[in-house]
Amino acid sequence: MIDRPTPAPLPADLFDRPDCAGAAVPFRVGDKWTGVVLRCLEDGPRRFTELRVPLHWITPKVLTETLRAMERDGFLTRTAYDENPPRVEYELTGLGRSLLAPLDATCEWSRTHLHEVAVAREQYLAK
Questions:
Q1: CATH assignment of the domain containing 85
Q2: Is residue 84 included in any domain, yes or no?
Q3: Could you tell me if 51 and 63 are in contact, meaning their C-beta atoms sit under 8 angstroms apart?
């Protein structure tokens, strides 16, 4: 077992920011939730229950499906430890980490253009 520092707990309000919330960002990587899972894993491996804290609005079933799809696509690894009770951790791969810079750029773009996107959505709904 590799001894590495434990990342700080994920705050429950990690995505309660209007400048880079999932609904505000008009870009997707993989599927609807991949970007927020990438963000949760950027500081190191996490257990499923740790991911559920800031991702409380995602059902466990959908989070499981997202994690499986990300593992399938090579964005993360799933490590099951032979312990009692069983412990599973998810960690970004190099490929997954390579998405963090584009995700940062997307968030910056969203902060700059969020108002314009909101106006466009309002105009679309007013049709």
A1: 1.10.10.10
A2: yes
A3: yes
Domain count, the chain: 1
Domain-embedded: residue 7: no
Q: Is there a domain that residue 104 lies in?
A: yes
- Secondary structure (DSSP) of 90-126: EEE-HHHHTTHHHHHHHHHHHHHHHHHHHHHHHHHHH
Question: Residues 59-91: pLDDT tens digits?
Answer: 999 999 999 999 999 999 999 999 998 899 999
For the entire predicted model, the pTM comes to: 0.75
Task: Please check whether residue 62 lies inside any domain of the structure.
Answer: yes
DSSP result, 6-64: PPPPPPTTTT--TTS-TTT----BSBTTHHHHHHHHTTS-B-HHHHHTTTTTS-HHHHH
Which residue segment(s) compose the domain that 68 sits in? 34-126
